[in-house]
Protein: Gamma-glutamyl phosphate reductase
Amino acid sequence: MTSEVVHKATLAKRAASVMNTVTTDQKNAALLTIADALIAHTADIIEANKLDLQNGEAAGTSRSLLDRLALDEARIEAIAQALREIALLPDPVGELLEQFDRPNGLHIEKSRVPLGVIGIIYEARPNVTVDAAGLCLKTSNCVVLRGGSAALESNRKIIEVLRQALETTALPADALQLIEDSDRASVNEMLKLNGLLDVIIPRGGSVLIRTVVENATVPVIETGAGICHTYIDASANADMAASISLNAKAQRPSVCNSMETLLVHEAFASESLLSLAEQFKAAKVELRGCERVIQLISGVKQATDADYATEYNDYILNVKIVDSLDEAIAHISTYGTQHSECIVTEDASNAARFMQEIDAAAVYHNASTRFTDGFEFGFGAEIGISTQKLHARGPMGLPALTSTKYRIIGSGQIRG
Amino acid sequence: MTSEVVHKATLAKRAASVMNTVTTDQKNAALLTIADALIAHTADIIEANKLDLQNGEAAGTSRSLLDRLALDEARIEAIAQALREIALLPDPVGELLEQFDRPNGLHIEKSRVPLGVIGIIYEARPNVTVDAAGLCLKTSNCVVLRGGSAALESNRKIIEVLRQALETTALPADALQLIEDSDRASVNEMLKLNGLLDVIIPRGGSVLIRTVVENATVPVIETGAGICHTYIDASANADMAASISLNAKAQRPSVCNSMETLLVHEAFASESLLSLAEQFKAAKVELRGCERVIQLISGVKQATDADYATEYNDYILNVKIVDSLDEAIAHISTYGTQHSECIVTEDASNAARFMQEIDAAAVYHNASTRFTDGFEFGFGAEIGISTQKLHARGPMGLPALTSTKYRIIGSGQIRG
Structure:
């Protein structure tokens, strides 16, 4: 018997050939139609969401997770509004990237095409369901969604509403598929679905991402962990260094672009680290330090190698005093996850060296690492932040959901 | 104990930070130096190659494989010349791809950077050893090479020569690593070496590629099989159709961009297929046909579903008569490998539909699929032909061996 995963991925693959021929106007109209349908079915969606919340409470789900799962009128309006904004973005599909003529008269064009069928595996946030659907439809892709079981009732109702609404548009309803089987086996099946899925994008915590990367035979876009550093150089402006490092740590510690370790040049440390540490303490940040930090600041716990390798996503910060830019670069090369790294300095040549030598998706001079974000970069959308080097790196906008195709136009050319 | 694979990949990763700072001039000078070194050590290399040939003969290796393995003065000169040509190509590393300013004053630049450490797993052709080394060095990458055991003595000598020559240049010798352990376990170890290898590129037959795709946790660039089609439309120019389809099949059947199945519109078939079949027979191509072809042409074997799904790489061709462009597109969508597909037609709207609706790396109108090739496209180099949709698709030139990095220059910006 065909499994749910194979059945729905097959329907999506068939729909991909229709999606390959729809126009930008048709896609944008469909995005507005499904946004309206979400609003029109607000009550139904909230009712389905209540079932998820009840199941979650019965299962002892934490208050913060239930909060992220909960939908109300305002949240559904925000989700629909996000679709309307996706409709306003430029369409990358069809964009002519290169064209050239060969001496034999062949004319060659390279242009953007959809990826085809995208598998998205994510956790219990029903807004991701709509956001992923909107981004995939805008880029002429089909999508097979596999959300967390905690949001199954909400996701089922949302996809039912979206698919019904698509029936009234030029886009095929089968472009949107939801895997309802909440067994882990359905994830594993998706990961091996070469030939039906063109790419898998995991969106969620590090365990989910590791599972996908380690088991997928389908190509993956990894949106991974961020152990981000800020290095305060000897010549840093003290106020700027404090402002940037506090923002990088404490403005929203739970996200991947927040700072986990602060590296401080000893010349800066002897002048200003004590007062900076007071500001972190005032922001309720627990400090863990190297030997020299412990000697300088009372009540600081020793930072271990394991601490330097941890993405806390919390109000905890490692602080290490270094003797040189080289030592800072070496530390980041050892413990960083090639996400976002910052140098605060007034020394242009140190800044240039840091920006060149640090291997990361985003390197900052005198700005907070918190800016690594598709909206902050002005992309108008964000599929995630890629921490791999293939295909897309850093914040991913709509072009990250496209591939390319060569069109070769001849007049009978053959190869000699 | 650290294995050879981990040891050498670690050395390569360390060397990557040096490669990240070398200049284009330094790289080009090093390429010329290693080309000279190969020539200077021609006798040593031929001697090592003789050991491989003797081992191969003792093991009963086929004549054609021994031919591909054999090195002589002319071949070594050709290999060295390829390095000199790589030196002449433009350097993609450092290329500024985008830059923009945000309303908050952040200046954002996106530029090309090396991938880092590339693992290349390939079969018994020592020219690949030098070619891969040259392409990786040109793009500021380090490379861990794992060639077939049949070429081990040749590869060991070649890499010894190249590494010694690099010692006299600005590039680190450790940028080039050869895995000498010929056990399959060393391949499997490379496939899981996340954190040390940034990407793996398999170069070889379908079994090797499948092994890599199915087992790697490191991101892979798949250079896969080609089941390529030529569709002769009702309105095709008969001479052009014959010339293109004969070239696509018989000019070099062993390569991935050669044709495996010819689809012919019934209007063309009734006029011209008989004479075209005679030309294929004269070119010693065995034909396998659908029912209608068998009725039309005597002595043609029935083509099975398995035949349509086979990359023959040989003088064998499936021929199928179709009633419409739609049927041709449907056949290609079922059996094609998204490599190279051609329509021969004088009908512009049919050509446009074929080029839009066929999902492949390269789609041709009135030209042979044999042109899918980095050199034929004018790239001056070819790492392989990607049949996946992520990162690079179709013939890969030097930019396919790069990633990108965002540099963000601020003046104290923090996120609100």
